[in-house]
Write a structure and sequence with these properties.
By secondary structure, the protein is of the alpha+beta class. The protein has 4 domains: about 100 residues, no CATH class; about 60 residues, SH3 type barrels; about 80 residues, Alpha-Beta Plaits (2-Layer Sandwich), CATH 3.30.70; about 180 residues, Sandwich (Jelly Rolls). The strands form 6 sheets. A 5-stranded antiparallel sheet has the order 6-5-4-3-7. Strands 13-20-15-18 form a 4-stranded antiparallel sheet. The protein has a 4-stranded antiparallel sheet with strand order 14-19-16-17, with no helix packed on it. Strand 1 and strand 2 form a beta hairpin. Helix 2 runs antiparallel to helix 3 and helix 13 runs antiparallel to helix 15. The longest helix has about 30 residues.
Length: about 475
């Protein structure tokens, strides 16, 4: 039996060590190939661990930006990979002299048939070392390229190619040689602010001084516009039918140019209209007819009101007591940060006791408001009804549950967007405080409710406006002057 096992083992040993082929001075067998694969696998694991350590710990602790972290991580990865492959080959008896012969053969092959790959490889090394293009940079390509007028953010840089996410959400895979040999507009290089341009045409009869004051005031009201360098309004053309101006302003990043232009155009148009200044359309005119807004229909529950008939979200917001004195520009900001949500029949929007993280308006359909604990139905709200505004503004937990009784669409303004708006616009927060302070009785009830629930402590603030101000400061991390 022992002889049989020894014979079997010797047979297996012979099979595993049978030379499959010879390369250089090394005889490759199943054992040799398995050992090489195991070594390379260990090298791969070590490289991944080093990458995680560099990207998520060491380089972040050093305070380096994302592009620099990616560049260092890529270089270290390639160096470790080369060293690991050499060590793995040495471990199976492959000599460096043989590697030199192989490298020479590959060099001839690259010179003859892999010239494009060689260019991409050398370009990738140049990009990583020079760091003229880094991960998260915003690039714009010229009209002399195949992908002309494309813009996008660099997501990954390898030795052969670079991945760029375009504004349309697609991924552009571009050879590195294209980034080195042709002009590329890098809006993020150097960390400098970027300039955007807005053309404006006005009627020749317009008061130029008043126009200039209005435009620059509009720019000053927008927090995303940099004060240094200052904005500049250039008078480009003195025409018969219109005067043409061009506004130059600076922002932190060019990737935000479209949202910045949109917000600034809204602000300028609104302020010009308030001053009686109209933009000029020399070739055509556009006329808008405003529909008559229906009156409010009162409900038994005075906190909720319903508006019937065709009406816009802007007009619905105007019916909210806390927003009724808002200007159209301020209402537009509310509409901009809000979003629509579709509810299926019997779908719960929120339950009592949950955080008050949103304010809603019913656009279509109907919802039931009920208290599940005592199985009590409070009311049914239909198109135009609004609810939850105090829960959002004061951080009050929901006192009732809301469920759709049919397919319903609601418009919601959620806490995260609302908080950002308040932090960006301190004057906006002050306006809300003023509006809230006019509802003394209801706010006193809410304050007592929060104290009974242990959410807020007893306070000496007899002035409800002061209490509201402190509440907003705490909930939304605001810095408001008293």
């Amino acid at each position: 039996m022992t002889q049989y096992l020894e014979y079997l083992w010797s047979y297996i040993y012979a099979v595993l060590n049978y030379t499959l082929f010879t390369f250089g001075e090394v005889n490759f067998s199943a054992v040799t190939i398995s050992l090489l694969i195991l070594n390379l696998f260990i090298v791969w694991i070590l490289i991944k661990l080093v990458q995680v350590f560099l990207k998520q710990f060491l380089l972040i602790r050093l305070g380096l930006d994302l592009g620099t972290r990616e560049a260092i991580s890529t270089l270290v990865t390639y160096i470790l990979a080369i060293i690991g492959i050499l060590v793995s080959l040495e471990a199976i008896g492959f000599s460096l002299s043989s590697l030199i012969v192989i490298a020479g053969g590959l060099g001839i092959g690259i010179g003859l048939g892999l010239q494009d790959m060689a260019r991409d490889l050398s370009s990738g090394i140049i990009i990583v070392l020079r760091r003229t293009i880094k991960v998260n940079d915003y690039l714009q390509f010229g009209s002399n390229q195949e992908f002309e007028d494309l813009e996008g953010t660099v997501k990954n840089i390898s030795l052969l190619s670079t991945l760029i996410t375009t504004e349309d959400g697609a991924t552009l895979i571009i050879p590195n040689s294209s980034l080195v040999t042709v002009p590329i507009l890098n809006w993020s290089y150097g960390g400098n602010p970027n300039r955007i341009k807005l053309p404006i045409r006005i009627h020749p009869s317009t008061d130029i001084v008043l126009f200039t004051e209005t435009v620059l005031t509009s720019v000053d009201q927008e927090p995303f516009i940099l004060k240094d360098p200052p904005p500049e309004l250039v008078f480009n053309e003195l025409g018969v039918k219109y005067f043409e101006f061009e506004l130059f302003v600076w922002i932190h990043s060019f990737r935000d140019d479209e949202p910045a232009k949109t917000k600034l155009n809204y602000a300028i148009e609104y302020n010009l209209r308030q001053r009686g200044i109209s933009v000029s359309f020399p070739d055509y005119s556009v006329y808008l007819n405003k529909a008559k807004v229906p009156e409010i229909v009162s409900l038994e529950n005075q906190e909720h009101r319903e508006i019937r008939g065709d009406i816009s979200i802007r007009d619905l917001l105007k019916k909210v007591p806390y927003f009724e004195n808002f200007t159209e520009l301020e209402l537009r900001k509310l509409i901009e940060i809000g979003s629509r949500k579709r509810l299926k029949k019997d779908q719960i929007l929120f339950n009592e006791g949950e955080p008050g993280d949103a304010f809603y308006i019913v656009l279509e359909g109907a919802i039931d408001i009920f208290v599940a604990k005592i199985d009590k139905h409070l009311t049914t709200l239909r198109r135009g009804a609004f609810f939850g505004e105090l829960s959002l503004i004061l951080g009050i937990p929901r006192t009732a549950s809301v469920r759709a009784v049919e397919p319903t669409i609601v418009f919601g303004i959620y806490r995260q967007e609302f908080e950002k708006l308040l932090q960006d616009q301190p004057d906006f927060a002050e306006l809300i405080i003023q509006e809230l302070s006019q509802h003394q009785e209801e706010l006193e009830q809410r304050k007592k409710q929060l104290q009974q629930m242990g959410i807020v402590e007893e306070s000496d603030d007899s002035n409800i406006g002061v209490w509201v101000r402190k509440r907003l400061q705490k909930i939304f991390a605001l810095t408001l002057t008293t």
